[in-house]
Design goal:
binds biotinyl-5-AMP, BirA Bifunctional Protein, domain 2, 3 domains
Amino acid sequence: MKEKILGLLRNTENYISGEKMSSVLGVSRTAVWKHIKALKQQGYQIESKSGYGYHLIDEKEHINKEELKILIHQLGDFFTDAEYFDKIDSTNVYAKSLKHRMNTLIVANEQSMGRGRLGRDWESGSGHGIYMTLKIHPDLMPSEAVNMTQIMALATIRALRKLYDIEVLIKWPNDIVFKGKKIAGILTEMTTEINQIDQLIIGIGININQDVFIGELEYKAISLKQITDKEISKLTLIKQILFEFIELYNEFIIHRNLEYVIDEINNYSSVVGKEIIAIDKGKTYNYKAEYIDKDGRLIVRDDKGQYKELLFGEISVRSKDGYSK
Ligand code: BT5
């Protein structure tokens, strides 16, 4: 209900009376008043004038469950629910704990145990970035899940390019990079039931507001603020990524492979055409990255000219002065 009241306030240029809201929403005026009070406590500046009603003054960005519910509603019926946390251990871990089968969007402002692949960490300081997880239930086989990482990567690339006109690329399989530095990472996980995906958990972390990175990230990571030097609206970016994702996803469900976007995926690859080192179980291999195929695999050639398919993994791209991650 709170998000509906927020929606009404936002869609009204001047004042809207409590009476009008209560009749539009079918709740009592006391209920309207209680929600308005709660919104004010959340930091919204709502002016009340006797005889006129309420008026939302500030439009500083607030991210909370109500805003996320408005957002998913604007995207159609793909998501049924949204959750927001000021602080959580990991949005992916939380998503896995949800046993219902509703498509749910989960967003946090901070993660105390943000996770990468293979037990690695994802730096998720308070307000630094977008930490979000999509919990969905596609009618797909577990082997098709790798394609979802490619789809989320492409959705993110399209959104970042459209909104900020920046030259971001996909570093196969799950990184988004700008001039070789990582701006976002994707972690796709799933639970399965006899050769069928039960829950698909797609987590993405995007660096937004960091001015500096410390430790090992100093030379590896970059934030959107560092690239654009602008204030970024997280809600706008979340919405655009989800819009692109839903569009790509709906097509994927028809085709069941990446053929329909294969040129885009290859054109936006930071790896294709490069000399790379692949690391597998501690061993390193030199390859030339040839292309990404319709099943999301990286096709490489070894020094004897033999083609190989990499399904997932860890790669370094050779730069002029050696190798960089
Ligand atoms: C990833 O793993 O890149 C996947 C990151 C997914 C994070 C999201 S946030 C929402 C959801 N909830 C979670 O708990 N996770 C997901 P991987 O390819 O394994 O990369 C991890 C490596 O990236 C680390 O070992 C660091 O070297 C580097 N790294 C860590 N934090 C970073 C950051 N903020 N920016 C850039 N690089 C980072």
